[in-house]
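Entry 12.
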Amino acid sequence: MDTETRRPDEEIPFFNPLPTAERPLAGLTVLVVEDSRFASEALRLMCLRSGARIRRADCLASAHRHLNTYRPSVAIVDLGLPDGSGLSLIDEMHGSNPRVPVLLATSGAERNAAAKAALNAGADGFLPKPMDSLTFFQTEILRHLPDHMQPSGPRSMDTLVIYPDRLALREDFIHALDLLDQDPLPTDYLQRFLMGIARSATDTGLLETARALPARLTHADRANLRTLLADRVAGMEAV
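Predicted 3D structure (tokens):
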């Protein structure tokens, strides 16, 4: 039936793809609440390979705007966000009715402590950074899906390792440099953000530096950190 003959009150059919062995998450919508562009790009590629649609929010306020519009099939929430803790959003979403079918947390903080805090807040599972294993990503979502949303038949176990675009990592470094120029300096958030991108990029030097940041950064601390980040940006420009 074309648009000329369709009745005004007749709904246009919505096509919802069915999962397959190669695309086991087809038909699902994944809301990613993540402030890191690099980590978000990894999740975008995993969703793309798995057949899922992805929507991204980079803070709690943006996540609430998404949730006021639709209910995702899966939510993946970073614990360290610029306007608050992802734990509060997980607790809120866990208590909502209807609840999001699959609620997962992610973090670049120490794995055991972060996972325990997320599960206590109501998360179904935890995705540690770096997120690069497609098989683990798919398995963690599928094992928490309700029975009626489970794909039928066997699933292809894809051993692909995901490598996000390094330009997204460069954007994260630039964002961290911008944070260093803020007054007052959001030290707690900056530390969590740096640990997250360090784990996502397997940058051991940055991770050690982020862990050792004092509660109050002196002028020298800021200068040293600014040099470290600027060197990484410059190195990426030279490649």
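Annotation: The mean pLDDT is 90. Residues 224 and 230 are 10 Å apart (CA to CA).
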